[in-house]
Amino acid sequence: MAASEPASLPSTAPPEARRLRRDRPLRFRPRLPGRAWADVLGHDRPEGGRIRAVRRILSVLLFTVLFGFPVQMVLIRLPGNAKHRFSRFYHRTLCRLIGLRLRIIGQSSPERPTLHVSNHSSWLDIVVLGAVLDARFVSKADVAGWPLIGTVARLGNTVFVSRTRNRTGAEAQEMRAKLESGESLILFPEGTTSDGARVLPFRSSFFAIAPAARAVQPVTVVYDRLGGLPVGRKDRAVFAWYGDMETGSHAWRLLRRTGTRATVVLHPGFVPDVASDRKDLAIRVGRTVTEAAAALRQNRLVDIEAA
Predict the structure, then answer these.
(1) Span 140-169, mean pLDDT?
(2) Rounded Cα distance, 133 and 110, in Å
(3) pLDDT tens-digit series, residues 212-259
(4) Is the pTM of this model over 0.90?
(5) Strand 260-266, strand 100-106: pairing
(6) What would you measure as the largest C-alpha separation in the chain, in angstroms?
């Protein structure tokens, strides 16, 4: 008998053993019918996470309407920094309610005012950076009209800009005045959201207000865990919100998932005078943020001092 041929079983072998003598591979009948069997092997379960998403949505709505709105409406009318501290508490609580863990590398710039400059891939960046930084957002004017999100943004003292040519000068002056009064700002100089797999070029026009700040701090935000595992390219759309994606359906898909994490890298701040002009400043900050984001997407460590 050739060495490559399997040994045949004697005819006196029990039926269970004789069934193993086959010319074709074994075929097992799945215990779960239809698509449910394929879902166990790694695809998104069509029914999975719906209760989780509903629970999270209700928790966010109740916390915001019954607690967040009333408290912040009182605090914004009072002097002091209580409204800023409550804003960070509110966003940190939102992260816990939606099951998003935060990993923070580095420290926020102690200088006041600071212009924090970050990449932008999702509406979720507002929740994440609001939980990390004591600063006001600069957002497009359209956000003010969004249900619930617009109200939260206004209570967070967000600076809204229309980016129309006849309003550019007045809006830049408003942002410059906020910095000169000692308030830090969070800026997204890409001008739009990316697909999460790259950082778009930073527009130099956004850096026209940088001289009014005492420090400029690059900030990198990457969503690097899904189901407790590193996020691959095909899963970045779970977090990234871009193009013609609807906010409601995008949030629904995200809130159904578990084991999510965002990593925020707070690079060392520097005085804006180190750059020769705003174009040079945009290139320097953009390179720092881009390199850190690429390292995080590849599950590598980020050396903020080297950057």
Answers:
(1) 71
(2) 11
(3) 999 999 999 999 999 999 999 889 989 999 888 888 899 999 999 999
(4) no
(5) parallel
(6) 95
pLDDT score, position 1: 46
User: Taking phi first (over 0 means left), then psi (-120 to 50 degrees means alpha), and beta for anything else, what does residue 191 get?
Assistant: left
Two tokens, residue 120: 């932008």
Q: What are phi and psi of 270, to 5 degrees?
A: -150, 160
70-121 per-position pLDDT tens digit: 998 899 888 888 888 899 999 999 999 999 999 999 999 999 999 999 999 9
Quote the tokens at residue 261: 């994490």
| Residue 29 per-residue DSSP state | P
The count of other CB atoms within 10 Å of the CB of residue 299 is 11
| In 134-204, beta strands by DSSP E | 136-140, 159-161, 185-187
**118: its two tokens:** 């970050």
H helices of 41-167, in order, are: 50-63, 69-75, 82-97, 124-132, 149-155
User: Other C-beta atoms within 10 Å of 81: how many?
Assistant: 10
* Cα 275 to the center of its chain, rounded Å: 29
Phi, psi of 100 (to 5 degrees): -100, 120
Interatomic CA distance for residues 25 and 202, integer angstroms: 57
Rounded CA separation 96/103 (Å): 13
Task: For 286-307, give the secondary structure using H, E and C.
Answer: HHHHHHHHHHHHCCCCCCCCCC
